[in-house]
Amino acid sequence: MATIWKSTNQKSTNQATNNTIFGTTLSSWSRQQKLAVATIAGYAIVGLLLAMSACSKQSPKPALVGVSRQASNSATPATAVTATQANTAAPLAAAKKSPKKRPASVTYSDANSGVSFLYPRKFVLTSGNDALPQFAGMGDALMNFVQPGGVAVVTVETPNGSYPGTDFASAFFNVNVNRSVSEEECTHFALADSHNVNGGSVDAQKVKIGSTDMETTSNFSASALTQTETQYYHSYENGACYEYVLSLGTAGYGVKDGAEPVNRDEVFAKLEKILATVKIKIAPVEQEHVAEQAVGATAGGK
To answer: DSSP E strands: which ranges in 139-224?
Structure first.
């Protein structure tokens, strides 16, 4: 009985011992397993989150590519249209860039004398010391003031060969100024009108050129081969006498084969057009004088 009890006790003890050892082992492994599972689960969750984040960042890219492709595709027709428009506009631009024609007339202006006028671009202009013109084959053109002191301002000449097949030799428009003559003396001319058969002086005629009152006379001179017809005009402005000379020289008629007389009226008409554009700018000194006269008149009226 005692042995049986010991055996049973031994088995119970062994079973309890085994159970204790097994329990201890099972309990210890279970905690480690839990930690391992928890760790693996944590890594899995983190990996999943990273994967989801990566997918969320990568997912718009195809849409952007699609938009970019659509934008490039939609831009292609616009580029083609622009190129077409550019090709169409090219001839128009070329036409617009065609050289502009220069005006037929040129403006001359002189600050010292105050003279300005328009003249044909093809005419030859000289001023200063070279402004005194010459009669065709007859030397320097003489001024027609009654007192010395005249100064040549400017001369414009008709180009050579302007009237081919005729006896035309030269033509010019000339401006002279004389500040040594009075307003009354400016109405007279030194050279007598040679059209007067008696050779005496002829009173100047009053004419109106544009808005300016002038006196005029003419002169004719000739040699064996050349002839010169000249028209003179005087006006008094800025305390000076202004002289305008229109002259035509001819040569060769009756001597050159086939030479015809030039149309004098046509030549003088061109010179008279220049004269009609003449303007005289009031000098500063004259402006002060006019202002003083206006002030004096106002004071006298009071």
So the answer is: 139-140, 151-157, 168-178, 205-209, 212-222
